Every structure is written in C-alpha cells, then in structure tokens.
Amino acid sequence: MNAIAFTASTNLEEARDAEKRLKARYGHVPPEEADVIVALGGDGFMLRSLHRFMDHPAPIFGMNRGSVGFLMNAYSEDGLTERLANAKPIDLHPIKMKTRDIDGAEREVLAINEVSLLRQTRLAAKIRIQVDGIVRMEELICDGVMVATPAGSTAYNLSVHGPILPLGAGLLALTPISAFRPRQWRGALLPESATVTFHVLDAAERPVSAVADYTEVRQVVRVSVNVESGLSPRLLFDPEHNLEERIIKEQFLP
Questions:
Q1: Residue 43 appears among annotated catalytic residues
Q2: Per the residue annotation, which of 17, 43, 132, 202 is the catalytic one?
C-alpha cells in the first residue's frame, strides 16, 4: 500500500494545512491511481468522501480534523505508512433511496447513514409504511421517520432514540421522529434484505421531504429504501479505534 491520495475538507483550515504537510512528507497521487485515500476532516467530510469515491476500489483512511470524528482515526503525521499497513478494514453497505415527487419526477440516491423523511411545514406528516409490500402501519402521524444502517445508527438515528446496531448485524433500524400517533410506537428492526416503502398521505396539504445523508428531495409522495447490493465502500481504522468496537461502546455510555 504505497500510493496515497490525500483529500481535505475545504471548510476546515486545519484540514487544508494538514493536507499540504502530508503531501510534502509522503507524496501524493490522484485518487484513481491510489492504493488508499486519506481523508482529512470530520464525519461530514468522511460521508462526502465515501459518496465521492463510492466506485473507487481504494479504501479510505480518515484522520480527524473536525469535531466529533466518529468515523475517523486520531490525527497524527508520524508513522502514517505503518498505520495504513496495520489498519483494519470495515466494509459498509449503503442503502438506496428511490423517490417520486408530487409532479411525478423520480430519483435514486445512495446513503451511508440513513434515509429520513421530514415534514416541510408546521403540519405533521402522515405516512403509510410498507415492508416488502405488506402494509405494516396504515398511518403514522409524525415529524418524520427514517431507515438507518448500522454505520448510521449512532448518528441521527440515536439522537431520536433509535437503537444502536452492531456492524454485521444484518439489520436496518426503522425509527420514527416525534411520533404523535401511534404515540407509543418506537420503531422496528428489519432484516437488511427488506424493502421499506413510505407513502406520503395528504402530500399536497402536508408536504414531506426525503433526505439520503445530505441529499434532499422535496415534496415526495413515495419513497422506497433498500440495501444496494454490489457496493461496499471500505473504511480503514487503527486497531485501537476499530469502528465495530466504538459502536459497541456507545451502547454502554451513561
């Protein structure tokens, strides 16, 4: 693993400065020629990098120059070659969002963390939920609802009290956002083979947007979500910062 491509968040001065120093020290090749891509920034930048290089075979090793850095390794300029050689791979399984809006336009977008449906106005959303073609909830009145992957289960999903899913669990989290009716519904765990379809009721009066990570489609009437087979972007982690272990630890935090 010799050829390294460095990429940095343009929004963070610390990341841009680190990119210059690391390129001077370790050399740099374009991403399409790289054995590994080193991403410098925060979790948001890592998500954008995963999307940008989704079709590239090179794995991504992130170093935190942002705030939280859950998907990143600790930043250090020393011993990078050795760290990359000893890093442990984690394969992610993105989900695909297919949307149809109120005008009939259709779109497909991939997500690493989650697909979320969110009300656009002061009125609560009304959403029907199907799983593999079977109506499981006739009407959910809510601020929104999401489907989260294990990798994304500690992000937005966790903040709305969804379950943390270990990597490799083979599950998706279906989690409501501020459910009004049925008030006590807390969501469901689904096999990753499932296809979840949301039908927006009263779409003209109660508009809803659909968001795949950071890509938003507004005024949707139908959204389906399923794991995208054939795509498995790979992250690299220092052994002591293994993502699987971090997700397990999250379940025991006070």
A1: yes
A2: 43
